[in-house]
Amino acid sequence: MNKPFPTRIMLLTWMVVFCMALYSVAPALGQTARTRKKSTPATAPDPTTQSVSATSIARHLPANELMFIELRDLGGLFSIADQVFASEAIQEAIKSDPKSPLALAQHYGTLLTTLGFPDKATLGKMRVGAAVRLELPRFPLPAKGTKASKAPKTDPEPVPEIVVLVEGPTAESITTLATAVTKLAETGNVPKKGALTIGKTKVTTYPADNSGNLVGTAQLGKLYLVGQVPALKAVLATLSTGSATSLAATADFQLVQNKIGTDTNLLAYVNTKAIGALVEAGVQAYQKFQVKTTPSGKKKIVKTKEPDTAEFVVSNLSRYLGLPSLGGIGMGLIMPSADLSALQQRFFVAVDRKGKGLFPILADAPNVTLHGAAVVPASAQIFSAFGFNHVRLYDETLEFMKEIPAKNGPTPAEAVAGAELGLGFKIRDEFLVGFSGEYGLAFDLGDLSQLTPDKGVNEKDIRGVFYAALKNPGMVQTALQKIRAMVAAEQKKVNTEPGPQTETYQNIEINQLGEISLAVLDDMLVAGRTQDLKWVIDARVAGQTLDKQEAFQKAMKSTPANSMGSYYVSENLPKAFLEMAQKETPPELQSLFKTAKTAPIVGHITHDDTGVYSDTFSPFLGVGMGAALAVPNFLAAQRSANRATAMLMLRSLHTAQIQYAAEKGEGNYASSLEELSRNAGFDPTAVTMQNVPKSGYLLGPIKVTPAANGQPAKYSVTAFPAVKDGLNRTGTDCFYLDETGIIRHSGSPNVLATEKSEPIQ
After folding, report:
1. Quick one: pLDDT at residue 36?
2. How far from 246 is each of 53, 235, 239, 536, 545, CA to CA, in Å?
3. Which of 462, 456, 467, 453 is nearest to 379 (CA)?
4. Is the pTM of this model over 0.70?
């Protein structure tokens, strides 16, 4: 049976995926770092679009695309591929089997040219983008004045529509590419081609008739389009009306792109506003009309009655989740230098933290302290700490519940009030406020040395606990005692199994509530099975906790001050997977493991006024290739952001000093940050910067010279990275500021800046 043309015509998409795969495994396979030059943008900026997003191929797409992915630097990928194939490990593998696909793949440039594609240099200057949109099914709605209409025999389903765009350096390069793709597709038995005109653009379609979902191709100068015809129509409509309706011109896309970095080699974007609108449209259709089956078996579309509780929740789900407060989600991959181990990953979620709903609540989280590591045993291989505003979650959920229509019984809000009466305390004011908002998880997976694909982790060996940091341990203890008493009373009423038990272990009281036990350790509430709590208590008594481990301290010492979540995976876990992969790898490919390294996996989630970030600097496990990386340097983007924040802080400090001298100081400057905070509006969160890092930087003491003998007052202060060396350094520069307002820098994290250092222009 012949393969349909849509599979063939998507060859270009497959090529992109192949390049992305190389891009991902390159760090794991590369042995030497060779300098590569960044390829220039594929096209000159389009003057009709805003400059920040002009280079993005998303400027050709309509604003309501749901998802978008862009590969911006094919030349960089080719450079990485060349380095990978030149590595000793790959060359040894090729020598062991000269006829292997790997041996053929190293000549990919020649192969592409033989197939008629542009040469590597030209392909390297191209940009590739792909987008997905979705059309809701259209029900035949009841005619005016009627109650029902015929429903389709099968329920219609939303159909995703995909389009791939390739932007080249010249129109000729796109013509060559289009010809090569068409010829390659025609090597098989291709359905007869057809043609149609969309606007003024000629589109080639497959198949020729209108049966099925047509796939089309079109060429417009430096742009080549492949995709389903409805998606092509939307793109061509955008191109004909100008950039005002393009995805790249939207404020949400620009914000996400800027936060992730305009120099990302690969950008993925989720359009939450468009998805939210789609959800709302679907919910409205559900609310107004439903498909019902009559007693005779026929399907009819009928209008729904007044919404019940379930329908209310469904219709308001988008609002409760907080979709209207989301402005887009993005992910970027960055190769900032020739170092193949420096692959950077950054996620960013644009969210209005003051908005309503679940997502804004999660984004409005307290900063974590990682204090939970003080009660986690050193043997734990996985540790995570996260924060969220649990009191705000309770308040907004209660407000939402008040709107739910009640039928034949108490409203949800009344049910909460009844529960509080039975508990004997107020859930919010006598329980929730006792927690700080920081929570965490820790797991020990047992012995991983015998891990195999067929024999995974033994569930009996797994130990794990959940912890919650407390602001008021006494309040929480009192509430737990009341909960235990209530549960015991209820069980006694129905004459079931014995009520909650209490056990004292190592002078710590363990409260058993069914299969889950609770214990308060200093200012931590720890939950888990009884044997897991004893595991925690034993480690704490012996002083063998995670926070005392050198590997953990090194990995987490550069935790950002605004971290709302951090995670750590012990080196033992990636090491076990690496060893497992090595056992399963054929002998001829064992050379791939020569340069393989393992290290802890570390990541942080941070937030600012615009949204939430997630930066991962961790070893990449090439499971199929059996290789791994050392932890890359702390994200260059994060260091750059730290540097910018430090300079902003210094400018704010100078402004405060000028105000202080003009008012409170009577011509003299303040000698402490506390004075500036109290009297000149200086940022109160930065008054501890001489001892506690803020965004990776510390401040030196403020040196003040009072006005005397006709000479004006003077002051000076320095700023420097909290961690100056190693993988987790937090900055690349030191700064000096004085009464002139000029910021000077040393250009090195290890050299303090002075009044003689270079000024920052």
Report:
1. 29
2. 10, 9, 8, 55, 53
3. 462
4. no
